[in-house]
Amino acid sequence: MKHPPEIESLNPLNLILEEHDRQQVMCDRLEEIADGLPDSVDLEKARHIAEILKFELPQHHRIEEKALFPVLMKYAVKEDNAGEIVSRLNEEHVVDESSAEELIELLEYLARGYSLENANMFGYMLRGFFENYRRHILWENSFILPLARRRLPEEGLRTDITDDRTARLNIVAEKRECLQCSGKELLSWGKHCKQTLFTFNMQINC
Asked: In the CATH hierarchy, which fold is given to the domain comprising 5-204?
């Protein structure tokens, strides 16, 4: 059955794709920061990107790891090689978050108006991160999401992804905790996160 456009827009796979679009913009901003080193960095941009790396990126990874990947593995067939691909993506999430921690510290330092002792090294770190992450997004968009659209039945898409209700509740709790500890400057981001979780849950519970 084909859903109306307003419901189809709430499809969890479409929401993940929208998040990937936001992450592409994040990579573009990181490249702009790298190009502006050492003396032409937008401090507000540095602060904002540090917040995205600290809060939004890990939460996106958790949604994929705890919701999308498990249900995809349930419906994938042997020739999809989904297990190997998902394992690789999970490993990349770990590496990316570890690299992001280093970037966050230096981005926050820059945002406070301080100068870096080794701007060239920081530029190298930024470029390594956003180049790798662009490849990561491309791989998910070109393999994982199309595979999910092919393999997941409509009923599976709406119900099986919510089997792990504890994981889903933990995601919501983590988002609230991040919002509380981040201050008013993250209010807009927090609203986006809560709206994303609301629409994600709304669609998969239909």
From this structure: Four Helix Bundle (Hemerythrin (Met), subunit A) (1.20.120)
